[in-house]
Specification:
17% strand; single chain; 14 strands
Length: 478
């Protein structure tokens, strides 16, 4: 499972469990809290009414006394109150009074007068001097039909002379409970959605930074020769990430610098050792033979071989130095715009003598543009292309240097290269056989060309044309 999915799964699991328990606690506490407030208010109401009823109870006029009349008037009062968005249009208190035996002597609804309520908790506990209250369902098994009863003692001559109970249906406050629960649930769901969005954002941020570190770690192995300079520079830039990830990025940068230096040296040492074997062995063999008595013709032949191999070593060293300097750079240094035609003319001048020596004609055709390129590097690339084309061209043939806008193509009349080798042209020290059994080159010429193109953000295309090989350099436009 990917890191992002794991983080999201863990976040949603923790967030979901926390939200479940929090919402459950809130919803579970709403109903008891409302009933507790309701009971507290009913306690005050019962005690006030008990004081008002004490005189009528002492005089035995509970059924038709002033208290009874006022309670009946209360029950028939018109009411239309807007309470926090709800309309209240009925008065819901039921009030009844019992004597010291628990017999109902007054009922505001006239349905329990004369009945024995001494066994009900509200009456029994109050007659004993305790706090009396109860909640009873009007319909068994139906929680919505519950009625809350709160009693207060009616004191007559300093003693408990009866009990006054205030009753109120729980359903009258149920709508407030339902609204509060709905608000809690809606707010909880909104909080869950917002926290999920934050979790997704944080996860994406973490994954994005981790992927930047991953891409940077992959760049430690070094860019390919054909990569554009812009992408190479971006890949090698240290990611600017905060906290511990930033410390990790800087540590990886120091590691990259050490690895690049070591791998660079090791790779060049191995490649250079391999390339030096043949010319050094040839020079040594020719030198040993020259120590002996040889005919003048043979001595001249071996001496010429020493000179040729020395020149080969010199070319190898020069190109290695050039490629080494290019690979240490991250981009071209453009001081003034360069004209492709001027660079092509300079490259032709550098290779003209060698072309005449091998009997190969050089031709320049087309027109190019001026762009933000480093003239010396462009000339170096074209010179290496022409040298390579001259090496593979048979005597009496021609090498065409064609310019068209921001592209430059070099076309020779040689045998071309095998199709399987096309993709590898430009790798350091990768070469193909020269015509007529000549010694193979170092493979550094096209490596220099590809590096020059990478520094300019361009690229090199190679294809067989039968006969010949065509190498096209594509420079980026402004």
């Amino acid at each position: 499972m990917r890191l992002g999915l794991r983080l999201l799964f863990a976040f949603f699991l923790i967030n979901g469990i926390a939200a479940f328990f929090v919402l459950r606690v809130f919803t579970a506490e709403i109903k008891p809290s409302v009933r507790e407030v309701m009971e507290d208010i009913m306690v005050d109401t019962a005690n006030i009414l008990a004081e008002l009823a004490s005189d009528d109870l002492a005089q035995g006029r509970m059924r038709d006394g002033r208290f009874a009349q006022q309670v009946r008037h209360y029950a028939h009062r018109p009411i239309d109150a807007a309470i926090w968005g709800f309309s209240k249009q009925s008065l819901d208190y039921r009030i009844y009074v019992t004597d010291t035996q628990g017999t109902v002597v007054f009922d505001s609804e006239n349905r329990a007068v004369g009945e024995d309520y001494s066994r009900w908790r509200d009456v029994a506990r109050t007659l004993r001097g305790d706090y009396g209250a109860r909640a009873t369902r009007a319909v068994p098994g139906d929680d919505t039909s519950g009625v809350m009863y709160v009693a207060a003692p009616v004191v007559v001559n300093g003693q408990i002379g009866g009990v006054l109970t205030v009753a109120k249906p729980v359903s009258t406050v149920q709508r407030f409970i339902d609204r509060a629960e709905n608000k809690v649930l809606a707010s909880g769901l909104l909080l869950l959605v917002l926290s999920a969005a934050v979790g997704v954002a944080v996860t994406l941020w973490v994954v994005w930074n981790v992927r930047r570190l991953r891409d940077y770690a992959l760049s430690v192995q070094g860019p390919a020769d054909g990569e554009h300079a812009a992408s190479t520079e971006a890949a090698l830039a240290v990611p600017q990430v905060p906290g511990e990830l930033g410390d990790l990025a800087r540590a990886m940068d120091r590691m990259r610098a050490r690895l690049e230096g070591r791998d660079y040296i090791e790779g060049y040492v191995r490649a250079l050792t391999h390339e030096l074997k043949s010319p050094v062995a040839a020079i040594r063999g020719a030198g040993e033979l020259l120590q002996e008595e040889l005919p003048a013709a043979d001595r001249a032949l071996f001496a010429d071989q020493v000179v040729q191999q020395s020149e080969r070593l010199q070319r190898l060293i020069d190109r290695l130095l050039e490629l080494s300097k290019l690979e240490q750079r991250q981009h071209a240094q453009v001081r003034t715009p360069a004209a492709l035609e001027a660079c092509a003319s300079a490259a032709l001048a550098h290779t003209q003598a060698r072309a005449v020596q091998r009997g190969v004609a050089l031709h320049l055709a087309g027109h190019g543009t001026t762009g933000p390129w480093e003239a010396e590097l462009v000339t170096l690339a074209l010179t290496n292309l022409l040298d390579n084309a001259i090496d593979f061209s048979p005597p009496g043939s021609a090498v065409q240097l064609e310019i068209d806008g921001t592209t430059v193509a070099v076309q020779d009349a040689g045998p071309g290269v095998p199709d399987y080798a096309l993709a590898r042209l430009g790798e350091r020290f990768f070469t193909t056989a020269r015509p007529a059994g000549e010694r193979s080159g170092s493979g550094l010429g096209l490596a220099i060309v590809r590096r020059v193109m990478a520094l300019h953000g361009g690229h090199m295309d190679v294809r067989n044309t039968l006969p010949g090989l065509r190498v096209t350099l594509h420079f980026p436009a402004d």
